[in-house]
Specification:
The protein is an all-beta fold and 179 residues long. Helices cover 0% and strands 42% of the residues. A hairpin with a 4-residue loop joins strand 10 and strand 11.
Length: 179
C-alpha cells in the first residue's frame, strides 16, 4: 500500500474524502495509538446499508469474512500501561456500511472524571489508512470531561466516502442515533 502523504484533520468538523482501490473490496485501517498510562479501548459503532446497527469492541472483535466486515485486533494498555499502545480496526467491505463511528472509552480508570482528566491529556490519535493511499490523522483533542469520546466518523452515504473529525465527549456509550 503506497501512502500519498499524511493529512491531519486538526479541527472538529474537518473532513477528507477517502481514496479506495475498489469500493466493493476496499481495505480501511484505523489505528488508535497513545503513550500515557491509561487503558483506552477502541470501538467501532456501525450502521449497515440495510439499517442494521452494531458495535465492535474488545468483547466482540468482529471478523473480516462476515458482516459487518470489521475486526478489532487486540486490547492494549491493560492496567493503565504507558508506552507505545495501539489498537487497530480493519474494514474490508466499506461498501456494505453507511457509517462507522471510531470511538474510545477509558476502561476502569476510577475517579478520572472527578479529577478533571480529559481525552486531550492522553497523547492519543487515530490514523486512518486506505488501500488507495490515504494516511489521515485525527488527534484526540477534546478537553471536555466524559467517559466516551467519538473521535471520527467514516461517512459512506455520499458519492465518495469521507473521514470527519468529530472529537465529541459524552457520558454514555454512543447509540444508533449517534451514527
Amino acid at each position: 500500500m503506497e501512502l500519498k502523504g499524511k493529512m491531519v484533520l486538526k479541527e472538529k468538523g474537518d473532513s477528507s474524502s477517502l481514496q479506495l482501490k475498489q469500493k466493493n473490496a476496499s481495505i480501511v485501517h484505523a489505528k488508535l495509538s497513545w503513550t500515557k498510562a491509561v487503558d483506552l479501548d477502541l470501538h467501532a459503532f456501525y450502521k449497515t446499508k440495510e439499517g442494521k446497527f452494531g458495535h465492535i469492541s474488545f468483547s466482540n472483535k468482529g471478523g473480516l469474512d462476515k458482516e459487518p466486515f470489521i475486526m478489532l485486533d487486540e486490547d492494549a494498555g491493560v492496567g493503565n500501561t504507558a508506552g507505545d499502545n495501539e489498537e487497530n480496526i480493519r474494514i474490508t467491505q466499506l461498501d456494505k456500511l453507511d457509517s462507522v463511528l471510531i470511538a474510545t472509552n477509558i476502561f476502569k480508570f476510577f475517579g478520572f472524571l472527578s479529577k478533571g482528566a480529559n481525552f486531550g491529556d492522553y497523547d492519543g490519535k487515530v490514523v486512518v489508512t486506505t488501500d488507495g493511499g490515504d494516511n489521515i490523522e485525527v488527534p484526540l483533542t477534546s478537553k471536555n470531561v466524559g467517559k466516551w469520546c467519538i473521535i471520527a466518523k467514516l461517512d459512506n452515504t455520499g458519492p465518495l466516502p469521507k473521514l470527519i473529525n468529530i472529537n465529541t465527549v459524552q457520558k454514555d456509550e454512543p447509540d444508533g442515533k449517534s451514527i
